[in-house]
TrEMBL record:
Residues 95-285 form the HDOD domain. PROSITE patterns: HDOD (PS51833). This is HDOD domain-containing protein. It holds the Pfam family HDOD.
Length: 343
């Protein structure tokens, strides 16, 4: 799986023939031969295609179908003015707090060698978090009898340490952004589910390539942090305004503000630079600038999630799916490693 990615991690140079798509359907590969032969590595000469794909994905995710109207443009101007006032200088007040204990727990969860006893002790010190873990362990996914799980040790036995780390990392972040509102169910939930999907993809890709899977999972969770922050603020502003939001307004504002807020949140939380450097590179890179293996893993994880969503929604055909993968240096075989149901 991801043989080319593994080669990238060794910083070896490929010939054009070695990186050409060899397993894509013959009819597609014949059409794509010229462009494929120019692809050198993931992201090289292709990030503009990825950015176009992301815009299509956000529009699809938020249900953007209606053409912008004068009313929606006026609404966007008002919200943009309010957002500018609210996050001037990208101040800390715009960013949800992440406690020192939560950051310490995240560090332990993403480390290779943290003892299980230390992780369980930290979770037990947060009754709400421990309760969530126990609740998940009692779900039909893990328990097949009527025996109720009442303590954390038993819960970990049921779900396993690997799954425990994912559950806790996800819970720490979800607490900051899940809102009890119509808008969250309509738009925000989809944004959060996308981040969770990217996290899962990033972990699988990283582990297959010899990287820290838990760290890749966390990076995937927070890669769209700015979108979630902006969405939460937009919900608050809409609540004050009392009007129905136009999906295109959400889409435009999320795209314009999210990257800067993601970077600022990582700085405010004082995350280690190696945790969010891949996100900065992923956000700001020009063609050929994906230097770190972790950045490539995030790039692919996000790309595959977006393409899968568009394909599942009928926004792109199977031919377009294969073509878009080829445009960014990947292949249908790599995609199906993560989404076997597309076979």
């Amino acid at each position: 799986m991801f043989a080319k990615l593994k080669s990238f991690f060794g910083f070896t140079k490929k010939t054009n023939d070695e990186i050409a798509l060899s397993k894509v359907d013959r009819s597609v590969s014949q059409v794509a031969t010229n462009e494929a032969s120019q692809t050198q590595e993931y992201g090289h000469q292709s990030l503009e295609h990825a950015r176009e794909l992301s815009l299509s994905f956000v529009s699809s995710l938020l249900g953007v179908r209606a053409v912008e109207t004068e009313q929606s443009k006026a609404q966007e101007d008002l919200l943009r003015e309010a957002l500018d006032a609210e996050i001037t200088g990208l101040s800390e007040r715009s960013i949800p707090k992440l406690s020192k204990s939560a950051l310490s727990l995240v560090s332990d969860l993403t480390s290779y060698d943290t003892p299980q006893s230390k992780i369980l002790t930290a979770i037990n010190e947060d009754p709400a978090l421990a309760g969530k873990v126990i609740s998940i362990a009692n779900s039909p996914l893990y328990i097949a009898s009527d025996t109720e799980i009442k303590d954390l040790d038993h819960a970990v036995t049921m779900i396993g340490l690997v799954r425990l780390k994912e559950v806790v990392l996800k819970s720490i972040m979800a607490d900051k952004f899940e809102l009890n509102s119509y808008y969250f169910e309509t738009f925000g939930k989809a944004l959060w589910e996308h981040s969770s999907e990217v996290a899962g993809n990033a972990k699988k890709i990283a582990e297959q390539s010899g990287l820290n899977g838990n760290q890749a999972y966390f990076i995937g969770l927070i890669h769209d942090l700015g979108k979630l922050i902006i969405f939460k603020k937009l919900v608050e502003l809409h609540s004050e305004e009392g009007s129905e939001p136009h999906p295109q307004v959400f889409s435009n504002l999320l795209s314009d503000y999210s990257a800067a807020l993601t970077r600022r949140a990582c700085e405010v939380w004082e995350l280690p630079i190696d945790w969010y450097q891949p996100i900065l590179e992923f956000q700001m890179a020009e063609p050929g600038d994906l230097k770190q293996p972790e950045s490539v893993a995030l790039f692919l994880a996000n790309l595959f999630a977006e393409i899968n969503a568009l394909f599942a929604a009928g926004e792109i055909t199977e031919f377009e799916l294969i073509w878009k993968l080829q445009e960014v240096g990947s292949s249908i075989e790599e995609f199906r490693e993560l989404y076997p149901e597309t076979n």
